[in-house]
């Protein structure tokens, strides 16, 4: 049984209106043990915020890591998404993709930085996402390199359009990427059909390496589910915060 101290954590829930998306978006903000608003903290911005907190258990994992494993205290911002519009917002060919990117960088990011003591250097911001959440995280880094340079991709959807976007960059030596894919993800059913995530990740891996990105690539047994990602999330967090 886990020690109860790991469940004593502070999570704020807030809502902000997005003019770009013409809707209100919910945010979940995890404040680390020993939080002091007079200090400053690195920050992790998670796509699929509700899932990262409820299924990924990121708050519990970080609390344990900070208290017992030497992880640097960090603030986490989970950006919730509606499943009905998720593909439209996260996919590079989605109807709301550009609007979501502008919401993320022009509305959400300034709001957090105005209200929480997060560090604003790009090396102190980490983007994290699973599946299409990994896709949008990579695109945000590529399109806003002055804002982001570190990404956690859990079984990212590196379909052809995203691979072409990566390949369009001449040099990615500034990008640091933690990239996980499960070997049982060769036939993943999505609302757009069945995809071979393993092959797509391997193809993206080669492009990242050709472009000299600082890539930490992991391939191990696992399916396209949170049961896999939850178990692997601690290693990803240690990679950037230890």
UniProtKB/TrEMBL annotation:
InterPro entries: AB_hydrolase_fold, Esterase-like, Mycobacterial_A85_antigen
Annotated signal sequence range: none
Gene3D superfamilies xref list: alpha/beta hydrolase (3.40.50.1820)
Pfam name, any one: Esterase
PANTHER family (alphabetical): ENTEROCHELIN ESTERASE-RELATED (PTHR48098), IRON(III) ENTEROBACTIN ESTERASE (PTHR48098:SF3)
Name of this protein: Enterochelin esterase-like enzyme
Species for this entry: Paenibacillus eucommiae
Lineage: Bacteria, Bacillati, Bacillota, Bacilli, Bacillales
